[in-house]
Every structure is written in structure tokens, then in C-alpha cells.
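Work Package 3 (structural annotation) set out to generate three-dimensional models for the target panel prioritized at the project kickoff. During this period the team completed the workflow that converts sequence records into C-alpha cells, so that structures can be stored uniformly alongside our sequence database. As a representative example, we reproduce one entry of 701 residues exactly as it appears in the project archive.
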Amino acid sequence: MGNHRWIRAARRRDRDLLRDRLDLPPVLAVLDAHRRLRGPYTAAGTLMRLIGQDALKRLPELGPGHNIEILTSTPELAHLVPPAWTTLEWSAGEGERTRFYSRLHTLNIANGLAEFLRDYLRALGGGPRTLVIENLHEADATDQEFAAVLLRRRDLGGLTVVAGTGTAPIADPPGELVISLARILETCAERVDAPAAEVPDAPAPDARAYVDGDGTSDDPRLLEAYERLAPAERARLHDERAAELTGRGEFSLLLGAVPYHAEHGGDPSGAGLAALRTAMDHCQGIGLYQAAAELGLRGRAIVDRSCQEELWWHFTNATSTVLASLGRADESLALYDEARAATDDPAIQMELAYGTAMLYARHYPEPRRDYQRARAWMNMSIAIGSLLPDPRKRAFHSVFGHNGLALVEVRQKRAQEALRLLEEGIARLNRELAPHEHVLHRAVLRYNRAQVLGAMGRLEESLDDYSAVVALDPDFPEHHFNVGNILRRLHREEEAIAAYERALRLSPPFPEAYYNLGDARLELGDVQGALRDFGYTIELDPAHVDARVNRAGLLYELGETDAAWQDVTAGLDLAPANVHLLCLKGQLLAERGEVEAGLRALSAALRHDGHLAEAWALRGVLAYRSGDPAGALRDLDRAAELSDAPEIRFNRAVVHQESGRYASAAADYEAVLAATGDEESGERLDACLAALRQGPADLPA
């Protein structure tokens, strides 16, 4: 792990001057992350254009393994890797898109790009390198995630990241936060504030340079010269620059500089909106929601509803959808309300009602969800859809309205009613539509039925539905992940492992797949494989508490107590009330001879969960070791009430035996012997029975 630096200054020139004076490893690349250049993945895409061809020549397997990451960040490399989006969804007809990526998708892509860079650096022979990422305070959320991942990962060899920002606090992207670059910089990089250098005397700058720099310069003289231009001249320069960049044929320019220039050129409501729409639709389609939201809001600021109604609705609908996906539900609702007041079109009102229902059922955080309102809006959508004149459209919208209603039923714990709605919808589409119509939508219904069946414990039926969806849509990783989850619940671990590995081959790396792999391997007795998978889960997501719990437990069992302690302390920093980590902390403290501290940790666990048999049992053992047999028995009795685990009864039997209560000890030993055949229990049972034959019954506790 490199010695990362965070250089702050108001102007990039000052940051560059300071960086040149630092003692840094050889520079791999200097990247500008300003989102006006190429929009999302401006920096990451620049890096991939610099190293991608050489990396794929040295390591051809990186192409198929990271095609989604490469094509999402760097569409100019499309000719070097297999296509990424070949699923049923992307081959479906117009209007059939119903599935959208999780907001975690871009974080997974960032981790995939980090893997690509890691393997490339190894192929170069290793050794320390420096990667400079400038203008991170102006970066799209995707590049902020990419930089944060590089800063926090520990498996990138000697890579030193130098992050350049302004002096103001770095703003996190609005919405539900996945990862905070500001926090990562504070904890993972050494901050260096660059002094402001004197500005040398120079001729007045040419305003064209500001436009040719795509509006990214922080030179106040250049900005002032640009602002002094007559509006018509400014627009002309922007139009010329937009034409020049478009002529390069590099698609990523259409996501940043081209729409910027087009909306500031001579035809913002024509060429500007067209450029913004192209960029917004692309970003929405591949899960780059923060960029799509920004582009959509910029488009809405230009579009004139009175004469561009279709375009206004397109920007409004797309923007509200991506805002909802980002957890910005209030902003989304405001757009829905505005649209409702602006139109009497029944089809639009139907879509607005459906979208509003989804806000209340899915997109608001749990404390603010309102299933009654969701149900009311969904019924409104269904009612409007039932009046459509076209019978096929009427059937389709009715079924998918009831599909949305099924989600509400699931959230309100009425799985049977949700199942009824889904099965009736599947039957109706099969009855009223031709087999080739709405294939994707029918797959979605079956997928949703699989989820409901799984929640109801009808695992074989759920697996049948998931398998049918996989057959229709074999390239979508989430389907394989869900198949793996059901197979694990059916105790078919080897098949589950194959499903998870298939999901990972089709997807950027994501923590839950590795975590579930680790659990499945552990069930099969593959401790080292499980440790590896839990470890990589933590590499991808250091805040994954369950992976910390499982790895710490395995390390403890293997006698690696120092490593176990590191996971316990790191996990408790994240989740101070985690009872499993508190239990393990108690054990580790006791082994260090800190019995009182161990007892306090176990007592804390029991304050959080008084039904945790493990904590009662461990506290009983420690109480016995500290010379409190009566307290030990109280805790072990409570543990035995909660669990019939043989080890609990064995430990209680030992306390009984050592305290002279041979009949009680014998009863526990007999139970352990019957359950496990444990030889020591048999020997101790014989000793207790012999003692009973020679003396009185149990002494009082």
C-alpha cells in the first residue's frame, strides 16, 4: 500500500508545483478528473486509454473478465473486448426496459477497474508507482468512487495515489451515499496544503483558451477574459469546439465536453438538448445515475414545455427515475407533482401514479415508506390502465400495475396475496399476448414470483422460476446470484458455488457474492477457501461486518488470535453492538488473562441480545474460571434453556461435577454422550456415577 498524498490548493498550477517537489515513485499517469471533459469516468477512462491496449496485450484474459468495467468507463476500447450488454434486456424491444442497476453498481465497477490496474502493475513487474488524479473536487461521482477505492485498497502493491483538490471541503454526491471520498482522503492520505505561488506577469490571456480547455480552467484571468466576450462570440466558440470534439469520434466526449459546449452554443434548445439527451439516456441505461441526474436537470433548465412537450416529458420522466434510484425521492416526487399538474394525458398520468407508488413502497428509506399511499397510487395507475382502448396494452399495464401492487403486499408481509397477483398476471399475459410479445416483462414477473416463493420457503418452486429466467436471460449476473442463494438454502453448496462463480464472471466484483462463496465453502469444510473469500469481501467493502465476524471466528479457531483481534476491533468500530464480535472479544480477552474485561464484553453482548445462548455460555465459563461457580451455573442454566448444544451441557456438567452435584452432572453427561459419543463425557459420566454410589446425592447449589 503506497504512501498516499492529498494536495490541496485553490489552483491546479500550485498543486502541480508542490507535487513536483515531492519525493514520489515513478509516475504511471497524471489524470484530470474534471467531469466537464468526459463526464463519468473522465479520469478512469483516461487511465484505461493509456494502459488498456498494453494491459490486454500482456494479459488477454482481462478483456472478458472486465468487459463491463472497460466498456462502461472507456467505450473507445469496445473493439478490444467482448460485448457487455447482451442480455435479454438489451435485445428487448422499445419500451421493454424494466430493470435498472443498483446504486452500488458503480462502486463495483470501481473495484473491477482497481483489479485491472492491480493485475497490470504486476505484469509490469511490480515496484512502486505513482498515479496522480487531479481536480477530484470537480469529478463525477464515478471518479470520486474510483479514487476512493484506490486509496483504501491494500492489494495494489506499491501504488501511491496523489489526489489533487481545491481548498474547500469536498462535497459528497447528493442522495444515499455509497462511499465518501472526503472521508477516505482524511483517513488514507497525508494532507499537504500547497502555498499560492505568485502569478507571473503575462500578456492578457486569449478567451478562446478557456473554451478550448472545455471550461475547466481555474485561472481567474482566463475566466474573466471569457466572460468579457460578447454572447454571440462566446456561443460561436462553443459551437466550433463542439463540432471539433464531435468529429473525433470518441464517444466519451459526448458525455462531458460536447453537451457542455452545445448547451452554451448558439442553439441550446436544439443542439444543446439533443446532446444532453444522448448523454443522459446513455448514462441512465448503464447505471451512471449521478451523471444522468445532473444531465437531466440541466436539460430541464433549458427545455420549453410549451413548445417541446415530448422532450420536456422525456427529461422529466428520466430525471425523476434516476433521482429515485439515487435515494433522492423527495426531488423525484416534486418532479412527479409538477408533471401531474402539467398534463391531462391518461398514459402519462398512469406512469406518474406508478412511479409515485414506487417511491412510497421502495425508494424512500424505511422510516418514511408509506404502503397505504403506495397502494392508493398503484390502484390509480391500474384504474387508468384498465381504460386503455388497445386490449393488449390494457392487459399489459393491468398486469404490471398488479406486479407493483405485489411489491406492496410483500412489504406488508402478505406473501400469499403477492403470489396470487403474480400468478394471475403471468396467466393473463400468456393468455392474451402472443409468445413473442413482452418477453422481458414476462421474465420479470417470473423473477418476482421466484422471490416471493423463496420468501415463503417454497425453495424448489423458487429455484424452478429462477432457472427458467436464467435460461431466458443467461448473461444477467443477478439471476445466477439468486440461484446460488436458493441452492445454499437447499444445502446444495457445490452447485451454489458454481452459480456464484458464474455471477462473478458476468459482473464486476461485488462483496455479497464473495461473502456467500465463503459461507458455502465453509459448509463444505474448505476453511482456507472461506478465509480467502471473506478476506476479499473485506477488501471490496471494509465495512462488511458479517465478513469480519466470520473471518475473525475462523482465525480464532485456527489459533491466529492476533489477526482475529484485528478483525474484532475493526468490526466493533463499525458495529459496536454486534453481539458475535462482543462474544469473540470476551473470549480473546479471557485468553489474554483479562477475565474481568472479558466478562464485561460478554455482559455487553447480553444487554444487546438477552437470548444469545453463546454469550450466556461463555460468560458462565469465565465466571467459573474467576471462582464464581454459582454465577457460572446461573449463566449456563440460561444458556441451556436457549440451546441444547452439547458443549453448553458439557460445560455445565463440569461445573456441577466440580461442585459435587454428581446427579446433575451425570444427567448432562448422558445427554452429551447420547448426542455426540464424546469419550471424555463417557469417562466423566462413569466418575459421577461412581461418586453417587459412594456418597450422598447432590449438594445444594
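Residues 68 and 85 are 8 Å apart (CA to CA).
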